[in-house]
Amino acid sequence: MQMKNSQIVANSNNNSLQRIVRTIRFSQGDFSLILVHCNYRFLREQMVQSLRERTNANICEINLSGSVKSIYTTLETELGDKQPAASIVFGLESLQDLDTALVLANRVREEFRKKFPFPVLLWVNDKVLQQMIRIAPDFANWATTVEFDISNEEAESKIYQIVNSR
Q1: Total domain count, the chain
Q2: Cβ atoms within 10 Å of 67's Cβ, excluding its own
């Protein structure tokens, strides 16, 4: 097991956050797909809050319900005629039929480019990322992947907090 030092992880997370901010800033008028790979909800919340603080852009946040079958249709419905600076999509890990949603996204991937002239950030965990690579390889290959992680110390601290809160 590779040790993950706190400062190295913090620097890496900061660099990932900066990449997202730059993409939002410079991709206006152009579709871009970013897979934001993060396995920890608390870290996701921290990074989204940091993103809000670092950019004053209009970012639309969409939480997918478990019954969603089409990511594209859900974005189209939720956004309507809005043209945000970016759209962040949460909840892929909770989809009851993730395989179908990924197959459909792969099938209509060109429609994403036509309809959404701004960055779309899909937050994914290990399971979703692996399924996307396997089931929707063309869609996954379109994307840039940005990673957020925690250090071993943070992981131990979180486990300790969870165990002691019971």
Answers
A1: 1
A2: 9
